[in-house]
């Protein structure tokens, strides 16, 4: 397989063509790599990745406060070298990403003007003008980039990568969209590339001719006024001529963040074609990324010559042993990324990185799954994500486990969540969970209603209540009309829909239902009681952007600040701004939230040792269900 071929970047030899793409992690207070992040990276090296590329490391805090790792203190150098050793112990190589800064992307406060290439608007605080870096400032940063590279080499890092992409500071210099300078650092492409080229040359002088320099850049932004691919191709040629050893191709920027950090709504290999076009014009290796967690996609990209190396970002968080499972031909056991971006959302919410489908991500040594009592009998009631995770974990601990599911199909509400064409990533996770459950020693009983009498008669040592939740049907007149259905019935194709669809509820389920129906319906309208759609949804900004773009592409109409009064004669009667309105509907989909199924717990609580997990406790997201199921059994 091409995936597993030995390869080379400059003088750096790699055991395969798969790299862990750069992503930020939590740091120690001084900005050095924390022991926790070192262990996190080590697990991916242990899992077979040929190259680990770290998240960004600031080379100076003179112009910006700490935003990520900082390469300035004695401890940061010590921890970096310790990281190198841990990575090398498992046969992988380490590439350190160096950044001159974030520029207009700094998350400061509304009264602190960030430094940037030009006096343009701050991204997070539109209207707040950035401060333009002077020529002396630029030369100081160039010097610090060179020093940072020298430090990395001294710490025995195998390569460095310049953080020149995605609308961050270096890319701001490179782009007409954010570079409005009139000196030698602005105007023509040659001038806009001057800062990047100066950094490359200074780094080369600092590290010598044989130390690999990678450059991550964005040849296509995908936003109005942003870089088009033709200019990106010219940039690639200039970077090769400047002496970089490989080009790491990115797509997008924060204005279209989902193009850079992809979501569940994007198709596979979404960035590959841009990388393939760059590869046609250069003679150095090209690294690509973007939803290539399916080994067949990664292999095909390499075989077709579209890229030389394939990067896994969030997929590496979900499945640290991705490469080893390819090597062992155990791809059926790979934990798939579902594109939820809970990992990203955690970081931007001031929390420790976590993963919806891998409770051990960034907690590799915190939650050991230790052997349990082989005589302990555990019953799990419910075959959704929380229940399946609990059952598998109990089986892995060596306990005697049964799982009862009242339906003839496993997956719970994930079957609806993964129902739309654009939610295939979630359905892939359902298949992974179900297949893993069937491979386990869990005794599975489908179409088994868990009555209190049966549960108590089983004399189980522990009962896990994973009975999930049910859709709420609000008390609206006419809700029992045949043209009114639950959103889940449409998402799972249990019921059809007509040419005109009205969705009641503009939350996540409602918006996804609307997009699902829009693929065949002629007109789809969401009616929402709140002032805006998605107001109650807590998810990452890129997911929000992508879903809103999908709705726009599907021409989904929205009516907000509206209260529905009645469904009658294929019409929806509602009130908005004090006026009575009506809209025709062949089908009405109700997406008004969920209510926990608690009757079993209420009947057996106090009579047997039991725990409630997932939606059965509080209707929430996949992360909560999976983690809750995992820990409820891990802690027995």
Question: Keyphrases for this structure?
Answer:
19% strand; 5-stranded parallel beta sheet; 22 helices; globular; 8-stranded parallel β-barrel; alpha/beta; single chain; 28 strands; 636 residues
Task: Describe this entry's structure for a reader.
With 636 residues, the protein is of the alpha/beta class. Helices cover 33% and strands 19% of the residues. The chain is built from 22 helices and 28 strands. Strands 3-4-6-9-10-11-12-13 form an eight-stranded parallel β-barrel, surrounded by seven helices. A five-stranded parallel β-sheet has the order 16-15-14-17-28. A five-stranded parallel β-sheet has the order 19-26-20-21-22. α10 (295-303) links the parallel β12 and β13. α1 (35-46) runs parallel beside α2 (74-88) and α3 runs parallel beside α6 (194-207). The protein is globular and about 75 Å long. The two termini are 43 Å apart. 53% of the residues are buried. The model has no long low-confidence stretch (mean pLDDT 97).
